[in-house]
Amino acid sequence: MQPAIPYALLKEDIGYSDTILKKKDIEYPETDGEPMAESDFQRKPLTYLVESLALHFQNQKQTYVSGNLLIYYEKKNPKASVAPDVFVVFGVPKQDRRTYKIWEEGKSPDVAIEITSRTTRKTDEKKKPKLYRKLGVQEYFQYDPTGDYLQPALRGRMLNEKGRYQKMRAERLKDGTLSITSPLLELQFHLQADRLRVFDPKSQEYLLTYSEEAKARQLAEKNVLQVQKEKEWLQKEKEFAQQKAEQAQQQTELERQQKESAQQLAKKMAEKLRAMGINPDEIR
């Protein structure tokens, strides 16, 4: 996304006058006519970051996450605008916006992230840091999805006490992942084989997009159903085994009763024979 030309330069280079603005109603366009992203390399991480961060902060009513939205930073000057690929603002209502006017919102974004490409690398590296620093953007990250323009492909800067950007510390994890921690977001940006993911150290999980979260939820529900079915199967198997044991016990009891009945019958017959003067032992 190309940055807007600074207001001062406009007046100097093309004679842009404040009087012109006063003669007509000032409009703040919702688009600058530039494409959202140059390719899948820029579009996919942009979509991932906006959706995953929005989903992560969905329960925080005063946290706004957006991307490729025009931010106007000078009242009555529609040329003074910038559209970060991704940005996060704490302390403003979570609601849909056509544009973001700093003088109306009361503050600038806290975090800005740019997806660097061939056409934006110079702007992302030189012009935007200067503008973001003036606007008071506390943390500024750059990510090069192709790894052609930034080495390393992930960088972070944060404002120090003097109001200047200083490089944020990047560390290598045991598996080779490059990690940069965002103190404001309380999250970590992980670069794995040039793929950017956002890691939550509290949950020890990576942030998901809406579709990824839906798939994960469906998979979890499927696993729950599978576990439930396995429990039901085991319960039925246990009940079947119990029934077999009960049947075997009943069969044993029946055989015992039959044996006792036979013995009692034989005893009665022997008594009748003895009463008749017949020795039952001799009959055998």
Oligomeric form of this entry? Answer: single chain
CATH topology: tt1808, chain A
Number of helices: 7
The radius of gyration computed from the alpha-carbon positions, rounded to a whole number of angstroms, is 39 Å
Low-confidence stretches: 1-21
User: What is the SS-derived class?
Assistant: alpha+beta
Structure commentary:
The chain has 284 residues and is α+β, with helices and mostly antiparallel strands. It has a single domain (7-208), classed as Alpha-Beta Complex (tt1808, chain A). It has helices at 7-14, 18-22, 40-56, 102-105, 121-135, 210-275, 280-283; strands at residues 63-66, 71-72, 81-82, 86-90, 100-101, 111-115, 139-143, 154-159, 165-167, 170-172, 178-182, 187-192, 195-200, 205-206. The strands form 3 sheets. It has a 6-stranded mixed β-sheet, with helices on both faces. The chain is rod-shaped, with a radius of gyration of 39 Å. It starts with 6 loop residues before the first helix and ends with a helix.
